[in-house]
Design goal:
This protein is an alpha/beta fold. 44% of the residues lie in helices and 22% in strands.
Length: 236
């Protein structure tokens, strides 16, 4: 992967960045995504934010090497600390856990006033993001699920709007599985959730042999509820 050819995962993230966007890519790593978007004339400006020294230096180096220093600013800082209110209108955050992405958005909530679109790619716990979007008046407008190198990724795209709109039916299933992905129910979706059911069953069996406490009883019920919900969704 480089600034000319992204991974399938990041190419899919790039697809949802609007034409002419003023972008902040948080956790930009090597700044591959903003460099790719700038070279393909899709964005007007970008901030590549990175919290760690090594990736920050790598991003700086790549931006300079590509001659994109006038279009991409690399900044070191934690989450949305790297942007000022009103500075960007699109934010991408890819390759982190859903809970971490949610906390980055929550901690930087005051910076989101001018932001029209969020493109978020959690490695795990997309449900954390869906819940945060609802609580903060962001409407999930589309989702995509893909597989690359044996790993399955979900991409969530949100805009300011009606947070309840995608969840008119099957709210609980929509939060866990994704309301748009639930409608599509493609082969990658089925593969992901079939594997999750097996994982939950393994955990349930391990808990069955553990000492009975209020905590284990609650956990077992939670697992059974999730297994039942997803099995119902996966029925032909």
């Amino acid at each position: 992967m480089n600034t000319d050819k992204l991974s399938v995962r990041l190419t899919t993230v790039a697809k949802y960045v609007p034409e002419g966007a003023r972008l902040a890519d948080i956790g930009s790593d090597h700044a591959y995504l903003p460099c790719y978007l700038a070279k393909n004339l899709k964005i007007s400006y970008a901030i590549a934010g990175e919290v760690a020294q090594g990736p920050y230096q790598s991003a700086e180096k790549n931006v300079q090497a590509e001659g994109l220093a006038e279009k991409i600013t690399v900044r070191m800082g934690d989450g949305l600390e790297v942007i000022q209110p009103g500075e960007v209108d699109c934010i991408t955050i890819a390759g982190m856990g859903g809970a971490l992405i949610s906390s980055i958005l929550e901690n930087g909530n005051t910076k989101l006033g001018s932001v029209k679109r969020l493109v978020l790619q959690p490695n795990i716990s997309a449900i954390s993001i869906r819940k945060w979007l609802i609580e903060n008046n962001w409407e999930l407008v589309t989702e995509e699920i893909l597989e690359e190198d044996g790993k399955i990724y979900e991409i969530l795209v949100a805009e300011q709007g009606d947070p309840a709109k995608p969840y008119q039916e099957k709210r609980e299933a929509g939060l866990l599985l994704g309301p748009f992905l639930l409608q599509q129910k493609n082969e990658i979706f089925k593969k992901k959730w079939t594997a999750e059911i097996k994982n939950w069953q393994r955990i349930y069996e391990a808990l069955a042999g553990a000492s009975t406490t209020a905590e284990t009883v609650d956990k077992k019920k939670e697992l059974l509820d999730k297994i039942e919900l997803v099995e119902e969704v996966l029925k032909p």
